[in-house]
Write a structure and sequence with these properties.
By secondary structure, the chain is of the alpha/beta class. It is built from 20 helices and 23 strands.
Length: 544
Amino acid sequence: MEISPIDTIVINGKIATMQAPGNFIEAMAVSNGWIVATGTSTEIRDLAPRAQVVDCRGRTVVPGFIDSHCHPDMHGARLGRWCDLSQGPDTLPELLKLVRDKTQGTAQDAWFVGFGYDDLRLGGYPTRDELDNAAGGRPAFLYRRDAHLGFANSAALKKVGFDHDAPDPPFGRIDRHPETGQATGLLRETAAHAVVNLCQSEFTTEDFMSGLERVFADFATYGVTSVHNALASTQGIEAYQQMREAGHLHMRVGLLASGREDELIDAIIRSGWRTGFGDEWIRLTGVEWCPDCSTSGRTAAYYDPYVGEKIIGEPDENRGMLLYEAGDFNQRVLRAHKAGLLVGADGVGDRGIDFVLDAYEHALDHHPVKDHRLRVEHCCNVTPAILNRLSRLKVICSSATGFAYDLGDAYIRNRGADAMRYMWPHRTMIDAGIIAPGHSDSPVCHPNPMRGIHAMVNRRTSTGGDLYADEAVTVFEALQAYTILGAYAGKEENIKGMLTIGRLADFAVLEDDIFTCPHPRIAETRVAETYIGGQRIFSRSETA
């Protein structure tokens, strides 16, 4: 049998294998993208004296991070078409000026669409009249960062048929002023998606491809080497394959095919594809549906009502909403599960998580599978009762740890400080043996895993808000959530998540030692270099 020669050696590192806490090695040898030997720097140099050398210069090395739930495909496509509001403006007057500047001189039927809108940062939403005037009568839409709500002006409402007498669409809501009955402009869930679907109907595969290169170049700066593309679209899947063929795909992608595209799910099941189809670059992880919503946007489903200041037009005793009828959802899950597909479904509030677990229990009752890897996506409000269900059903809690850092303050505001005891309770879940990988849900939250890791270790939001310290975990446990547990959630734990012989040589060289730096500084830890299959895809020194 012909054995590929060692082409790269990694030496002089404090390499965390992630096999156990404190398990570090100095060096490893790479052949054709895979780790084939580990040992001291001298031993590895002697194995392959002519190989390319990656000298870590004593720095800490960790496995490449796995973001097990994010949306790079749609984010990439929108970058080239819409206006990214995630980094600013910071006030409503500045926002309205931006809309005015962007629309001035454009055709009267030309849309302004801004995405990544943060009402918390901007102090709320404009009025319909204000957005009408800023856009000069053109249709304008502000898509909230959580992708569950959006604010439309009068022309945009008219474009989708939401006139004064329009009923709420199924599983959506057109907010109305309690005194006048007029639509305020705020649209929830499927009402907002009606505008989004119209505005992105002209997206092309080329839009996805060009945007994905930008998104993944950014991800690489944070040490991310693998993603699970949640709600992966048909065009996104096409883009990934074309990028791979052209040699432009510099990220490993697991596909959670979008349950919002019935034809896509039908085609996957009809083809006989099962979870694991593909290779280490593009792999079918499973399928995903989104039955629950947004806590920061006050739509996620809870048993107890939201607290804090309500938005004008918000329903009284608001307990959020669900986006499927139970019988229909149960059958969707059962069909995919029986077809050999891992199923992920979004559950955020306790009522939303129970809704997903009801469907999973139904599927397992009708079609038992020992190693099913069913996942609740986001899985934030893990109460003791839900913890017991996760444990009994052996369901993965695909935990939105990025929410804790970026959106934790909104959770405290909308659910109350006492509720944080059961939000992302990783200490309790680890002790109960529940598999709980972490993720960003980017672009909903920032793609830097250090932010989620920081929140897990310190139990603090980005502003220092208290997330209940008793649920804090160790640095090693937090890193596991973005490495070996992320790999497990995609049924790839045999090839990813640890730096050991027989696994992929995907790794990040850190500027700071995350194992020894003060815990309050974890979020500031930076990546110096990122490698996929032993090949460098990012170097901070070359971009500085």
